[in-house]
């Protein structure tokens, strides 16, 4: 099963989430997108559920010289969440990655300012007591999702659900420790990366993210 693009993936994910609403497992939901790729997916889900759309900026911390290989993630001003096993296997330490963390935090702040249009960071006012759906375009190692779930859990949501169209089965299972539920529509037996399950997986640009958020009323 491959998706045409992120909007197609959002439609499949929305169908799964609507089923949760019908069973009463998800009431008065708030949809929270992980940019950039999660925003087009989450917008479709939010529209189908008639739910507000919010955005939570997270940044992957990669291996020096191999940024595509994640060993940790940042959300807001929280300390980085590292995969300690991956660090040990690669002979890395948090101290050695301090410069990478600061660069990623600077980019996180830039994106948060652009996407949230001057509004304060996502927090208690939006999350407390709500059923929260954290949405991304896929799940590989789960490092970024883990950091985001921990950030959201702090604000005491009534229910916290990670929802993705496709992902690695082991990563999805591991994240059940962080979320009340993990909804992953497609868990391929041979999973090597999110992009292989999309026909169109072009990088989402800032302009598209901002346009979608403005259209949803999230940004002004």
Automatic annotation (TrEMBL):
Coiled-coil segments: none
Keyword Kinase: no
Domain of life: Bacteria
Signal recorded as keyword: no
Occurrences of domain Phosphoribosyltransferase (ranges): 24-193
GO molecular function: glycosyltransferase activity
Entries under InterPro entries matching the protein: PRTase-like (IPR029057), PRTase_dom (IPR000836)
Keywords carried by this UniProt record: Glycosyltransferase, Transferase
Identification of the protein by name: Phosphoribosyltransferase family protein
UniProt lineage: Bacteria, Bacillati, Actinomycetota, Actinomycetes, Kitasatosporales
């Amino acid at each position: 099963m491959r998706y045409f693009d992120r909007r197609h993936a959002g439609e499949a994910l929305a169908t799964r989430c609507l089923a949760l609403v019908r069973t009463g497992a998800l009431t008065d939901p708030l949809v929270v997108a992980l940019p950039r790729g999660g925003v087009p997916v989450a917008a479709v889900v939010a529209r189908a559920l008639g739910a507000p759309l919010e955005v939570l900026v997270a940044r992957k911390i990669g291996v020096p010289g191999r940024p595509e290989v994640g060993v940790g993630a940042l959300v807001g001003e929280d300390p980085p969440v590292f995969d300690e096993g991956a660090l040990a296997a690669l002979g890395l330490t948090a101290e050695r990655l301090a410069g990478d963390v600061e660069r990623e935090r600077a980019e996180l702040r830039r994106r948060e300012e652009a996407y949230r249009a001057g509004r304060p960071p996502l927090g208690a006012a939006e999350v407390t007591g709500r059923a929260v759906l954290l949405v991304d375009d896929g799940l590989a190692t789960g490092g970024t999702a883990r950091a985001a779930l921990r950030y959201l859990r702090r604000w005491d949501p009534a229910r916290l659900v990670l929802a993705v169209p496709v992902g690695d089965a082991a990563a999805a299972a591991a994240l059940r420790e962080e979320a009340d539920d993990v909804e992953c529509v497609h868990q391929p037996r041979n999973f090597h990366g999110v992009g292989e399950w999309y026909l169109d997986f072009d990088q989402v640009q800032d302009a598209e993210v901002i346009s979608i958020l403005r259209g949803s009323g999230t940004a002004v």
